[in-house]
TrEMBL record:
Family matches, as InterPro entries: Actinin_actin-bd_CS (IPR001589), CH_dom (IPR001715), CH_dom_sf (IPR036872), Filamin (IPR044801)
Protein keywords: Actin-binding, Repeat
Stretches assigned to the Calponin-homology (CH) domain: 16-121, 129-232
GO MF, any single term: actin filament binding
Gene3D superfamilies, per database record: Calponin-like domain
Name the UniProt record assigns to this protein: Calponin-homology (CH) domain-containing protein
Biological process, per Gene Ontology: actin cytoskeleton organization
Amino acid sequence: MSISMTLDGKEDQWIVIQHKTFINWANEQLIQGNRSVENLAQDLCDGVKLVALVESLQFKKIGKVYSKPTSKIQMLHNVSLALRAVADDNVKLVNIGTDDIVDGNLKLILGLLWHLIIRYQISSNKAKAPPKKLMLQWFQNVLSGLAISNFTSHWSNGIALHALLDFCKPGLSPNWRKLSPNDRIQNCRQAIQLAKDHLSVPKVISAEDFCSPDLDELSAMTYLSYFIRKNSPGYYGTLNWICKQLKTTNISNLTTDWNDGYYLCALVVSVGGEVKGWPKIDRKNHIATCQLGLDSAK
């Protein structure tokens, strides 16, 4: 049974969109194991594919699973195995229990999938700020010419998405400023296809859903997260922008190359900031130099 057949009013259309988006995301993780899901409430309830999903995300086996469970006890065992593995990996599962999954509670299953997306797709254990805030700040910085303060209505006409493509790969959508906000579906459809063809961003959401007034921010964040995670188009777009800004090719990552604080200070200076003592700073005192760069950036 289609989920849309089980809903009564328009207020629930966000669940339809989120369900489709999370199914597509899950299938992207399951594809290497030749598995797939079509309905989260039905296909995860015995725990077999849920365990496979967790193992795909954690890159390891998590225990013995009943591959063809014939009783609820065996299903509960499988689901418990999966939930324990993600809980041990610092995924906080509030009010989501094994019975909820086995009984096919869709809203709680969607909640579980969202926790997995946050932990393994969007964020990490090291991030202290909320994922939504970090994502929004990054988009606001790289799309400074646009008003971006949410993950729904400010993306629905497709223009911000085209601008994002052009940041990640300059020249991919050079005429994005000329796009009409009235061509919502066409803009979104073209951008999502360009992202798939040129940036290998999977189409986990449809153009119709992305521009829908019923789009929920979790679905939008799931799709947009493909642009900002490590080794993503946005990651390399940021790296290329920095190298161009600093006129150097010596920066190859956004982690260890920044440990001594030098490039942070250099970046602050390049955008018009003042760094005390620049360029004669002590690169051996990593903590002090990093702090100098952070203070100067305020």
